[in-house]
Amino acid sequence: MASNSFRSQIHLGVIIILIIITLLTPITTYNTSPQPWNILSHNDFAGKLTTASSSIESAATDFGHVTKIFPSAVLNPSSVEDITDLVKLSYDSQPSFTLAARGHGHSHRGQASAKDGVVVNMRSMVNRDRGIKVSRTGLYADVDAAWLWIEVLNKTLELGLTPVSWTDYLYLTVGGTLSNAGISGQTFRYGPQITNVQEMDVITGKGEIATCSKDMNSDLFFAALGGFGQFGIITRARIKLEVAPKRAKWFRFLYIDFSEFTRDQERLISETDGVDFLEGSVMLDHGPPDNWRSTYYPPSDHLRIVSMVKRHRVIYCLEVVKYYDETSQYAVNEEMEDLGESLNFVKGFMYEKDVTYMDFLNRVRTGELSLKSKGQWDVPHPWLNLFVPKSQISKFDNSVFKGIILRNNITSGPVLVYPMNRNKWNERMSAAIPEEDVFYAVGFLRSADFDDWEAYDKENMEILKFCEDANMRIIQYLPYHSSQEGWVRHFGPRWNIFLERKYKYDPKMILSPGQNIFQ
Ligand code: FAD
């Protein structure tokens, strides 16, 4: 007892000292002027470090296209040692320079940028022959963090195996999604991608490489998962695998009543042996049904759906999938028939597709290619993603979907809303989530024009302000906070642990400055 209280006093003391250091540390200590001339003349990086304007320009932007943050140089590493050397060089320099790992640059707000520092282009490490090792007996894959999830899927499927937790879109790197959480319609059952990793290699902000897992260097392991790149650069991840199903029965059900919609969603995610995937979306009285996420509905039904949306202004779509193969085909048909009968959607608005497992997981790609061909992919994406506690979701529907969004009448792009179970997450990881047992992911995945994206940003601010004023305890996913104060609120009581870990693993505040947490 006494030693526990002594320990907690020391712990509190350390936290207070860290806070005082943060407050007293003049910004200039870490607001370093970079020294690309030093680095460029360094033999270790010959031919790998570039200041070519095309590289600088592409490292300055991301999928969001709403920020332009220029680094001084870009490193194209060919080995883990290249990265370790660069981090060490920065750590040993006075002053140090900042570094950001850039996965596929699919952040939406400059999170993978390093103003005046060095962007590490992780994709230059990809070696198709060496980047992945699959253990059939251990049911895991050791993957270079620079690999895209689509590449991981292609490789594991060759052996009839697959990771179990996904993002909707697969052209994201393993390191990039593990730095956030990696969520999709499988999260309610398997947890986010960060809970499906067994081991990692991480280069800390001191330039030291460590293998970590829940049993080895566990604090670093949990810190890096959902850690926004703040504690280290992940170079390898061991990802849990299962036997891959062959096909997917993919259903959509339309609802006009939000409480029926969420009641059905919540029931389905509480079942242990039910559907394999569950998401949902909001369809608004703006333009054609859905858009880049799929060409799902049969063209012959578009008019019917559009007229239902027009009549009700906001309707909802429940999306579920059940995987199957030859042995389970008949059972799945029966199960899905029973499911259809038990749900409270608007009768006559059930849609079914039967696709390969790969086509299902890679479903966003079709939309991407179509938008690319029309020049509508590389446009501003002022996205807003939120975790909304279950107790607040009905208020969110009334005040945001049916309030702010309808009133402003500008939202374009998919609007996702689907629940997940808190017990599939792990509190020791850095990712922040609401306190309630069930919470919803809500995503406004907007596409805008270069001259009007700020209107969407204003709408995002309006939504955030409303939620804050109404004390809804929402938390941003893929967050953007313009000041440290926002981050302190983001983490709530866990901020001190985040801060403590930052001082432990990246004391010179070198890593991932684009997240805007410490710089
Ligand atoms: P980047 O944008 O390059 O980097 C993101 C952050 O991680 C940066 O701070 C960077 O410094 C850091 N980082 C990158 N690599 C490493 C590494 N190896 N080690 C440590 N830190 C690193 N997310 C979901 O969860 N679910 C979805 O369904 C989903 N769908 C999406 C669909 C689209 C079309 C897009 C564009 C994004 C989607 N995302 C989704 C968001 C996506 O997961 C994040 O934006 C992710 O960070 C992008 O991965 P990236 O590899 O491009 O990372």
UniProtKB/TrEMBL annotation:
Gene3D superfamilies: 3.30.465.10, FAD-linked oxidases, C-terminal domain, Uridine Diphospho-n-acetylenolpyruvylglucosamine Reductase, domain 2. It comes from the Eukaryota. Residues 67-244 form the FAD-binding PCMH-type domain. Keywords: FAD, Flavoprotein, Membrane, Oxidoreductase, Transmembrane, Transmembrane helix. It holds the Pfam family FAD_binding_4. It is an enzyme of class 1 (oxidoreductase). The chain crosses the membrane at residues 12-30. It catalyses: N(6)-dimethylallyladenine + A + H2O = 3-methyl-2-butenal + adenine + AH2. Its EC number is 1.5.99.12. The keyword Membrane applies. InterPro entries: Cytok_DH_C_sf, Cytokinin_DH_FAD/cytokin-bd, FAD-bd_PCMH, FAD-bd_PCMH-like_sf, FAD-bd_PCMH_sub1, FAD-bd_PCMH_sub2, FAD-linked_Oxase-like_C, FAD-linked_Oxidoreductases_BP. The keyword Flavoprotein applies. Its cofactor is FAD. Belongs to the oxygen-dependent FAD-linked oxidoreductase family. This is cytokinin dehydrogenase. It comes from Camelina sativa. The lineage of its organism: Eukaryota, Viridiplantae, Streptophyta, Embryophyta, Tracheophyta.
